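Researcher: Structure prediction, please.
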Amino acid sequence: MNLLRPDYNVVELAGNTLGYKHNEESLEKMRNFVISDDLRAKKAINVVKYATAANMVPVVVEDICTKEKTEYKSVREAALALGIHNTTLSYALRNNSIFKKIYRIKRKE
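Model: Predicted structure follows.
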């Protein structure tokens, strides 16, 4: 792209905006941009539906004393229910270890 040298390209290197300065009119528009409550709600729904769903790992938490198994949609949901941090639960999942001396976590099959 750099070899073509089009007249309309205002940046030095194609795909790189380093050093580009917005004009005052553009800066003012960006400062005054307000997202409506409707749009904010739609964005939040999409994040919950799509962005997080792709990263969810369904898990089963087993109480090794009672042999009771509980299924959760994600590691984060299980951690919240057990009152621990999700990284602690992720570590236990990766290392197949027992946490809080009574729980074992496994991926849902």
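Model: The chain has four helices and four strands.
Researcher: Thanks, that helps.
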